[in-house]
Specification:
It is built from 13 helices and 6 strands. It is mainly α and about 270 residues long. The strands form 3 sheets. A two-stranded antiparallel ribbon has the order 1-2. The chain has a two-stranded antiparallel ribbon with strand order 3-4. The model has no long low-confidence stretch (mean pLDDT about 90).
């Protein structure tokens, strides 16, 4: 409150903020007093976070450190491990003594910049650093796609694509600054393979699979050989006959969001 009062002179606003901070919390159906923290999910929490940590920004600037901070997530960049370890310890002491804030040691540490993620992004390269989607971010997207595919089991591919597209658009928009393209291409190929596997499973018998492949342009001989190969859906989804029958253009026509194409379009627009 003292830090807010540095800039805010209206006592009514200060009183309102104080009431927010002192509001009780509901736990197991009972109202309990709040002794620390701010109400979760409200606009006050990120605002007060920035007010509190402005002092940290000024301290890091005073020391001449290069840093990036978003709310309570902060990376400080130095030239050597020894300098980084010293800065980590002095910054931790500053937060503890001056701001009465504790660093989460489980999520914090000293490491090369390429090994520390920031807001879902990672860095690659030494002389010229480039942004990439962090491995954990990519894994989370894969898990969300798996969950959506599982939830839409039994539905048509068109319906599944309609379910996936909002997730893919949002992910591409957020990671539009990424400069490493391999991840986008690999994810696109993996998602299309998942959808080809669904198409394969939806045809229960070899006759239906051969008919599907012939309808998509394969010769009768190749279609029957592929339909009776005895392999599982995932193997067939990555095989040449399914890639020939259902290429990228098929899924483009179905309206599937391509991460690679969307990213390229965003780069051109910017």
């Amino acid at each position: 409150m003292a830090r807010v009062a540095r800039r805010v002179g209206d006592t009514r606003v200060l009183g309102l903020i104080r009431r927010f901070l002192q509001a009780g919390l509901m736990r197991d159906g009972l109202v309990q007093p709040r002794r620390e923290g701010t109400p979760q999910g409200g606009p006050l929490s990120p605002l007060l976070s920035n007010i509190m940590l402005t002092d940290l920004d000024r301290e890091l600037e005073r020391r001449g450190h290069a840093f990036a901070r978003y709310a309570d997530d902060c990376n400080v960049y130095l030239g050597s491990r020894a300098a980084a370890e010293h800065a980590f310890e002095t910054t931790r002491r500053y937060l503890d003594s001056e701001l009465q804030l504790q660093v989460n040691l489980d999520k914090s540490g000293v490491a090369p910049a390429s090994r520390r993620d920031f807001l879902g992004y990672g860095l690659i390269g030494r002389e010229t650093a480039r942004l990439k989607g962090a491995p954990k971010s990519v894994q989370r997207l894969r898990q969300k796609v798996e969950d959506l595919m599982r939830a839409s089991r039994g539905r048509s591919v068109a319906s599944t694509i309609e379910t996936l597209n909002p997730l893919l658009r949002g992910w591409t928009s957020y990671f539009g600054f990424a400069q490493v393209k391999d991840v986008w291409r690999d994810l696109d190929g993996w998602i299309r393979r998942k959808l080809r596997g669904r198409l394969w499973r939806q045809c229960k018998r070899p006759f239906a699979r051969a008919k599907m492949l012939m309808k998509r342009g394969l010769t009768e001989e190749r279609a029957w050989r592929s339909a009776t190969n005895g392999r599982g859906a995932w193997w067939n989804a990555g095989a040449s006959h399914m890639n020939h029958a259902f290429p990228k253009s098929f899924f483009d026509h179905m309206g599937l969001v391509s991460l690679m194409d969307t990213h390229r379009r965003l780069q051109i627009q910017s």
